[in-house]
């Protein structure tokens, strides 16, 4: 099946992003990826696969756990909203910055969203960039859905599974708490498409971010260590609000290698899903900014602007 929505991203624009990206896939990695895509086209009912390649850089967390290269990337309005309301899909990126996001998808081994986004958006989470050559399938990132309580009622007609069946994307790995027992039907559906549940141990005590509901929250270094153990050496984290805010909170933000934000020239108004990490209190009890970027560059793309930077340490 051919790609019905083939996007292109100019090489000159890609060059400007290079300092903010994980290393390009190695020749061996590209070959393995090609084999994965070919196998998926031949047989959508493949056995669960844990093989994927990412950049060669291996960074470590402050707790010395191996972790992938982490890019935090999302599109936002002028009033810091990701969407008009929780549970609503809102298009912010124009065509050029949308193509940029798909270029990022072509450069990361994995792509991560929270279960709130999976339920609200029914996302494809694939790369729809035109391949450089017809004989070389486009790299597809492995979707990782953070779903501690296994809430996502995945169905056969989910966009991500339709794309996996068509050989245009990969089935998701769903990250659930170790204590969770996902239902057998969903597990079978997932595994039939080459996805699986992955289990995260030692969830942090509730209340480590803006969550006050007592819900299970993972430590990000635990999540990233499991992603790395799956052979996924780079990950772009797209959202939504709770995922981004928990990762931007100190000290979790130390785990981020690169931040790439599309800013769209629109206001979404009150009641949107807002990016705003919890404030931090300094040594003398004063309020301090929890996180700031450095080494920032700005890239106009159509009517949007894309801002790239690193977390100031
Ligand atoms: N404009 C953009 O670039 C994007 C917009 N969105 C929008 O964001 C909205 C969804 O955002 P939210 O409702 O905030 O949902 P979300 O996608 O952030 O998922 C929230 C859920 O993720 C889990 N979670 C979050 N942090 C966790 C942690 N540290 N450990 C374990 N589990 C954790 C919890 O189960 C929580 O209920 C949608 O409207 C979607 O369209 C989503 C992605 C990108
Ligand atoms: N970069 C960007 N711009 C927007 O305007 C968006 N709404 C999003 N959303 C993210 O992309 C996912 C949808 O992916 P598919 O197009 O279905 O593959 C969505 O779930 C958000 O993570 N991103």
Summarize the structure.
The chain is of the alpha/beta class and 313 residues long. It is 24% helix and 22% strand. The protein has eight helices and 15 strands.
Task: Describe the model.
It is an enzyme of class 1 (oxidoreductase). It comes from Apodospora peruviana. The strands form four sheets. The protein has a nine-stranded mixed sheet with strand order 8-7-6-5-9-3-10-15-14, sandwiched between helices. The chain has one domain: Dihydrofolate Reductase, subunit A (3-Layer(aba) Sandwich), CATH 3.40.430.10. It has helices at 11-17, 27-42, 95-106, 115-121, 159-165, 184-192, 220-229, 241-248, and strands at residues 59-60, 66-67, 69-76, 81-83, 110-114, 142-146, 173-177, 196-200, 234-239, 258-263, 273-274, 280-281, 287-288, 293-301, 304-311. Residues 33-61 and 207-211 have low confidence and may be disordered. The chain is built from eight helices and 15 strands. Helices cover 24% and strands 22% of the residues. With 313 residues, the protein is an alpha/beta fold. It is globular and about 55 Å long.
């Amino acid at each position: 099946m051919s790609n019905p929505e083939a996007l292109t991203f100019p090489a000159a624009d890609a060059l400007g992003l290079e300092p903010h990206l994980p290393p390009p896939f190695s020749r061996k990695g590209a070959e393995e990826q090609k084999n994965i895509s070919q196998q998926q086209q031949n047989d959508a009912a493949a056995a669960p696969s844990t093989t994927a390649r990412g950049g060669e850089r291996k960074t470590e967390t402050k707790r010395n756990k191996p972790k992938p290269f982490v890019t935090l990337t999302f599109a936002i309005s002028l009033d810091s909203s990701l969407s008009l309301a929780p549970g609503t899909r809102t298009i912010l990126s124009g065509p050029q910055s949308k193509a940029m996001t798909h270029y990022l998808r072509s450069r990361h081994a994995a792509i991560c969203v929270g279960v709130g986004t999976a339920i609200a958006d029914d996302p494809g989470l694939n790369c729809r960039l035109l391949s450089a050559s017809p004989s070389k399938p486009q790299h597809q990132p492995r979707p990782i859905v953070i779903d501690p309580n296994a809430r996502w009622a995945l169905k056969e007609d989910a966009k991500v599974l339709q794309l996996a069946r068509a050989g245009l994307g990969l089935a998701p790995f769903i990250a659930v708490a170790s204590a969770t027992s996902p239902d057998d039907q969903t597990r079978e559906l997932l595994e039939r498409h080459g996805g699986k549940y992955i289990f995260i141990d030692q969830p942090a005590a509730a209340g480590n971010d803006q969550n006050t509901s007592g819900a299970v929250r993972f430590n990000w270094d635990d999540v990233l260590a499991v992603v790395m153990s799956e052979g996924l050496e780079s990950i772009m984290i797209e959202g939504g609000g709770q995922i981004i805010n928990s990762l931007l909170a100190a000290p979790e933000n130390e785990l981020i290698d690169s931040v790439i934000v599309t800013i769209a020239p629109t206001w979404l108004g009150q009641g949107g899903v807002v990016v705003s990490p919890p404030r931090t209190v300094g040594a003398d009890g004063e309020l301090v900014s929890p996180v700031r970027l450095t080494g920032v560059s700005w890239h106009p793309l159509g009517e949007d602007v894309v801002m790239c930077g690193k977390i100031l340490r």
